[in-house]
Amino acid sequence: MKIAITGASGKTGYRITEEALKKGIKVKQILRKNSKIKENQKNNEIYRISLDNKYELDKALENIDALIIATGARASLDLTGPAKVDALGVYRQLQSCKRVGVKRVILISSLCTGRLFHPLNLFGLILIWKKIGENFLKNQSFDWTIIRPGGLKENEKVESENIDYTKEDTQFKGSIPRRLVAKCCIDSLSNKQSINKIIEVTSSSENKKVSFKKAMQTI
Fold it and tell me: What's the number of domains the chain is made of?
């Protein structure tokens, strides 16, 4: 299998790359032209492009089995960022997928996506634009999976953390290490029961351990 990861130099994106390589999956890392990449990942296939250049994007997405979209707006003074990244940016990637024939797409979104009254919306209505991005993906052109994580944590000691997998609009608080979000993305690639599902994920040491495969049977 060969996949592309957009936002591959981000805090979640580089972890997705690492988890894919552990499984023997070939990776195309797609990142902005000025992005820095970890030293141990420089031997991968790397494309430095602008997402609004459809020719560069199409070239980067050729000959892959799946796309994982890990792009996401960051909190900043530019309140147009979420619209440009989480909605328009996702739309452009999906249009490119249609042009080059990529059907399997996994999108990292967020818990509480679509809710208007939420503190995160102070940053350019980010949860509203993420919902619009999700809606672009949810159509018959794609075998899609949407991962909605809680608050993202940087800790790497995840052995004691068990994931709570639920269907959409079930969880409204909680957090999860980025490493576990990355694992969820890679687990989705090999599990057909994750197709056409929104999966909300948080984690805690108090949760009962449940495998991704078993969770998909109940969501």
Answer: 1
Cβ density class 122-161: b for 16+ within 10 Å, e for less? ebbbbbbbbbbbbebbeeeebebbbbbbbebbeeeebeeb
Domain containing residue 196: CATH number? 3.40.50.720
Length of the chain as a residue count: 219
> Cα-atom radius of gyration of the chain, to the nearest Å?
16
Angstrom CA distances, 85 to 7, 41, 71, 139, 217, stand at: 11, 24, 7, 20, 32
| pLDDT tens column, 42-55 | 667 999 999 999 99
User: Would you list the DSSP string of 28-39?
Assistant: EEEE-TT----G
For residues 86 and 126, the answer to whether their CB atoms sit within 8 Å is: yes
pTM confidence score: 0.95
Q: 190 lies in which domain range?
A: 2-216
**C-beta of residue 12 within 8 angstroms of C-beta of residue 39:** no
For residue 193, with 0-12 CB atoms within 10 Å meaning exposed, 13-18 middle and 19 or more buried, which class applies?
A: middle
Name the average pLDDT for the chain: 94
